[in-house]
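Justification of resources, computational component.

The compute hours requested in this renewal are based largely on the per-chain cost of generating structure records like the one below. Each record pairs the submitted sequence with a full structure-token output. That output is archived, and it is also reused by downstream analysis tasks.
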Amino acid sequence: HNILTLPDMYIPGTDTKINPFTPEEPVRTVAKRIQRLREIGQTVGEIAGGEAIHPSNPRVGGMFYNISPQAKQKIYDLAKEALPLAIAQMEFMITVLKNWENRGTVTVGKTEVEIPEKFGWHDQGYMAVDPVFDSSSLDFEPKWDPDRWTDVSPYHWYQGELEISLEDADYPVGGTTKVGTKTWPQMQACTSVPLYDGQPVEVGPRARLTIFKNYDRKGAMGLQIARQMEYPDCLYTMIEACDALDCNGSVLADEIPQGDGSLGWNANEAPRGCDVHLARVKDGKVQEYTLLVPTTWNFPTCSRALEGAPWQLAEVIMRAYDPCVSCATHMLVVDESKKIVAQKLVQ
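The structure output for this chain reads:
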């Protein structure tokens, strides 16, 4: 996420935008530090989960296997290596983010754009269940309530058919959409809009820090700074987990219920935010399964945070609120036979 964010930023004290892929210092050291932190995280995920992406070790009721004492020591050593790197990265990023916020104006393409005082602010609430872990329907005092959740279809939330009326050929990269292009957000949106107590809520780093640690910094940069502040706590928690792990202990619950069809849920604090899974299981078979992922929670809040911001800085807000949107939004052009004839990454 830092790699996605840095091209919006400047080297403090200069008018030079940061290219995270430059071989020059001080950026080269920062980029190598980011990649090493990412490598450590992926390696720990692979050791504990079997694979770094889509881990195969977790199963219903626990894990398929425990890890060896040697693997436990490896995780511990990696976490100890990563801790000073994470603290250094946190301090660097917070300096860069505060510098951007205090600049007054920034350059986008060939345009100098003023940064509003309340850039990326919203008045919605926050939702989080734990500083680093989760809550479930099995808890003695659950921290999430399915009765407070409702959802709305995109057709009832977004605007109808619109026509593009603004065009800028210098906007990076490749210019904006052509004037006169038809767009229909109601039909093009692909997810429902989840609400908590009838309102959109922000999930993620700031939500966790606000609810559990009295964090109070608003706006897009306030969210970015909160994200950096979580890095050390992740590693402290990893070290604590290693200390608590019994490599000879059982990896399965004593009893795995087969389900009676009643609703069960788990709200897991993933890095991007609260990831809620709801299920009904009966006689060992899934009857119903619903996922409320962080990006889906943050979409409607993002819409509120974009209101009043200069359109040239809209992407800065999107990158702050959800890294998933920043790297997974593409435009595909297809012909009548559904063959792709052109494509463009929305950066």
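The first helix runs from residue 2 to 5. DSSP finds ten helices and 16 strands in the chain.
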